[in-house]
Amino acid sequence: MPREAPAAGYSLTRVSWQEWVALGAGIVAVGALFLPWTNLTATRQDVEDALNSLPSSEVARDAFTTGFLAWSGPVVLLLAGVAVVLLGQRPALRRSGLPHLWLMAVAVALVLMLLAWLGISWQFSADVRDFLSQEAGVAFYGGVGRYLALLCGVVSLVAAIVDVRAARRRA
């Protein structure tokens, strides 16, 4: 009995769950860019009162005011998710390494987000950073947007690993 050729064209019904996870993780990660990424808090009560009197955009900063490293990781996740969903149905591209490309893109996105976390205070100039941390006792910590975007990156990483393993089994 002859094998049927795969249907030509693009169909949303043929998108795998891993590819949907990649797209969903990218969309949620980009949505997390608008949530607080950096929060400021103080140990001294007078400084904490001063922080509370500031506009909330100065105390809880989103990724766009935080810098390139903050918003680049989620954007890479979204681009990888879009590429996987749009190109995942082309057997030649899957054999050429699309799952591996997705895995590498997620790894790069996670590294960018982790670097942004390590440099959380770099969004301020050296003078301001020294004043805030040493003189005023202000601490910088990650907001809910950082956690959510990092979680999306880990979810996409797990889906990419599953997809690479499935591609290796098919080969």
Number of helices: 9
Give the fraction of residues assigned to helices: 55-70%
Radius of gyration: 21 Å
Shape: elongated
- What distance separates the N and C termini? 23 Å
Please outline the helices and strands.
Blueprint: H1 17-32, E1 38-42, H2 45-53, H3 56-59, E2 60-61, H4 63-66, H5 68-87, H6 91-95, H7 98-118, H8 126-135, E3 138-142, H9 144-170
Antiparallel strand pairs: 1-2, 1-3
Helix pairs in contact: 1-5, 1-9, 5-7, 5-9, 7-9
Describe the structure.
There is one protein chain. The protein has helices spanning 17-32, 45-53, 56-59, 63-66, 68-87, 91-95, 98-118, 126-135, 144-170; strands at residues 38-42, 60-61, 138-142. The protein is mainly alpha-helical. The protein is elongated. Helix content is 68%, strand content 7%. It contains nine helices and three strands, in the order αβααβαααααβα. Helix 1 (17-32) packs antiparallel against helix 9, helix 5 (68-87) runs parallel beside helix 9 and helix 7 runs antiparallel to helix 9 (144-170). Strands 2-1-3 form a three-stranded antiparallel sheet. The longest helix has 27 residues, at 144-170.
Keywords:
171 residues, mainly alpha, 3 strands
Task: Describe what is shown at a glance.
The protein is mainly alpha-helical and 171 residues long. It has 9 helices and 3 strands; from the N terminus they run αβααβαααααβα.
